[in-house]
């Protein structure tokens, strides 16, 4: 999540960004390494003509070290989020089983207040710093998980309100944190850092559901499993304390919450924001369905273990494609991501429509009694969610100005996402699950068509890494010194 604001320079030499990108070649970015070697050979010819190029060597070496350090910082933050959401997402999947009368209401409250928390989150980040804002918000997640074992509906509803507010603070400041980190490496590794963070974070879907399956198969029951999630969430909260503060390179002026709300509204009125609205809305609708209605579609008699197995497939695919999508975007641009989320999204919801109990023949009854089709759908919906997440986050990174507009853009994203999830969670209870599936199927098609038609508004031409790297120029020395002096 970064912004490409490099300045021109006549010398065509390998920039700090070129060197930084090469660090990732050992984990899948071989194309970047090839480009670096190509630029390197060109530079060897030019060095003899201009000795001033030699002066850049110490700077390149220092920046190389910095990117290695930033990779470790990203891993640390991702690990903390992984533990926190190992706990929260597993607990969230069982809300409708633990509290069937208020389950969808709890989800609606969480994501309704998520939207409200997103509006004030930048201000909280300014007052506490991005890291400490995330730490404070994580405590509300831990409190919510613990409340699920209380058996008290009112307490759960109150804690769902708190965790909704905390979610806005947590995710907005996470976006700002990664954006600042990406900017410090010149802005060309947005896909890498975003993909790395979400790959580690989304391991929660694997670890959490494996832990849930193990506890439930041991006969410990859902309540003991929830306490296990409580401990995992608490560990994630503690790990956040030791994350890098990632302070801004220049101290921002405090902005009143009213002005931040106005800034979000101004972002919402931009044409490029309108292009992202269907994707943002679809992501919210998809998650509301996955956590609210998908468990009830599982074959009759399915246990809590079956729910965990479906969400294990969901989380495993999320984890894999969080990283793969970042590489695909950096190398090929947005179009492969667009095609893949259209393909998996439309296919998953069409499969679910075919599994609805509307046919009476024995073959259909036999198929719907199997868990395997739902495991497949769980994985496909996980791919849809993570691909939308990558597409939206990187579009925000490329399309909005650094600083307050970036924060407002992430606020706009979270408000729209939460509005969709809250609305679908609160309203879907009044409709049969078939109509909810048709609703999401329709939005999948709308999101794909709109983004494909107007992608130029948010992609700036959708340059790939091959197009960007050979033409990148050296930033101003004073800009580098500002960054390094703040590390």
From TrEMBL:
It comes from the Eukaryota. It comes from Spizellomyces punctatus (strain DAOM BR117). Keywords: Membrane, Transmembrane, Transmembrane helix. GO terms for molecular function: transmembrane transporter activity. Pfam families: MFS_1 (PF07690). Gene3D superfamilies: MFS general substrate transporter like domains. It is found in: Membrane. PANTHER family: ET TRANSLATION PRODUCT-RELATED, UNC93-LIKE PROTEIN MFSD11. The chain crosses the membrane at residues 75-95, 101-120, 132-149, 155-177, 189-216, 222-243, 304-324, 336-356, 376-396. One of its GO terms (cellular component) is membrane. The keyword Repeat does not apply. This is Major facilitator superfamily (MFS) profile domain-containing protein. Its main location: membrane. It is a multi-pass membrane protein. The keyword Transmembrane applies. InterPro entries: MFS, MFS_trans_sf, UNC-93-like_regulator.
